[in-house]
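Dear support,

We are seeing what looks like truncated structure output for some complexes. This example has two components. We would appreciate it if you could run it in full and send us the complete token output so we can diff it against ours.
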Amino acid sequence: MSNEIEAIKDPGLPAHVHRRADTDPKAAAKAERQVAILFLLSALGTITLIASYIFIPQDAFIFFPVLGDTNAHQLFLGLGMAASLFFIGMGAIHWAKTLMPDEEVIIQRHEFRSEDEDRADLIATAKAGAAAAGLGRRSLIKRSLGLSLGLVGLSPLILLRDLGPLPGDELKKTSWKAGTRLVTDPGDRPIRAEDLEVGAVAQTLPEVGEGVHRKLSDIGKDAVLLIRLRPEEFNLDAERLSWTHEGIIAFSKICSHMGCAVALYEQQTKHLLCPCHQSTFDVTRAAKVIFGPSARPLPQLAITVDSEGYLIAKQPFTEPVGPSFWERSS
Amino acid sequence: MLALLSIGTTFSIAGAATEAPITAAERSALIDEGQRIFLKGCSSCHGINLEGSAIAPALLGVGAASVDFQVATGRMPVADMSVQIARKQPVYDEKQVEALAAYVSSLAPGPQVPGESQLNYERDGSTAEGGELFRTNCAMCHNFAAQGGALSQGKYAPTLMGVEARHIYEAMITGPQSMPVFSDKTITPNEKLSMIKWIKAVEAEPQLGGAALGRVGPVTEGLLVWTLGLGLLVGVAVWLAMKAR
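Here is the complete output from our reference environment:
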């Protein structure tokens, strides 16, 4: 008894099996007909496209199962073009697979290295060209060309500046300052505490001067959601409670996970949901994270009212709003 | 006493549903009718005096708008106490809903049912403004094309397609179920009409791009491409590589 393993013999290539069309003229004629049918289907597709372009009005709608009411003009243009292209390909491939020669042929690759004679020729041509251009003699051209080529290399470096400037402390601050009025978004109307019923929400932004256009990058940081609860429903420490006003609490709308707008407020559960990754915040406990990937509560904006009774920010946000970034301290 | 009560409440329900002038006698008859329906169909959960119970909220101060929304869309009376009370075929007809609303709002005032003249969104609304308001205030729950969306624990924001303008308006001012209230001061009545006009515009919009796939964005579109589209490509690739017999 020996444990030696017998070497497996190279089985070689399987014997070539001819296709039915190669041996049977009837099968070949059938394959030919099939190819022709495929090409005709393609022609039909193109005719459909042309006919739909000319005859189907652009505002014609038809009911199509599954799709519902569909624009007939577009539908048949698309179907026609799809059929015309698809069946040309099908026909060509079916033709190649059934009728074109299927014998396997071996062609040896030629040497990669060029013939010595060709190589010498190339070098001679290049040298002759360089001599004719006179680069060796005309140093003014050589140097100015060097300068221009070198400067061209600089331009991508200059354009890279568009990636910056560095954010600096932009991520850490918002437009909210002590005394900034909260205004409706959109509408820009200041809000009084009594404008909100219990259970009401309002999307707000900091007030800007008349005619001032807000930058999108500012809206992305400044958006604040106002929610009114019954004051006794809060479960906050004394400081956070003093940041609310008669049951109205304000949170940054920018999710502390990935920066989506958190505004799905469930009135009955007092939960605030982020639509992107389902982070859930408990409004009664200062937006404590109770579900989902978010790592920390939404920043709360301290609010109060001014002498005219409009809601204002008591102070700026005490922490950066939005998702984590490298230099964020917590 | 009843006459006094009805005179007092006529004001608070003025503009309810029909808006036709209604006499005090008719009003009190309506309230009586509403009370009969309430005691028979609603009081077992909401209490004989609207005080609510462990399984149903108190109805004092919810207003006629809330009653009209809940009952006329068939949500109330509730069929099963699941996480969310769904829209269904209404149990009461229009006249009975009006009577119920009159009765509930006669005991404590609340938001009123908007009348026809308050709901002329074609005249008073602006589609563009409505779209902007919708995207800021509604789209996160109801989807960017008002098709509805998921909330937590099996709750959901229903689709707004095919919902009557009156009921959309009432939902905004009363905040049914999970939905918060959108006060008239932060979103004015005209802005609300703009939103309704935008929703109606979306509803009437033809599907120019062919299959809308529920208009819920990349989820269904991706599903279709990854299953049907990729499946077709795999099928063609297999056929390509197959040797002809």
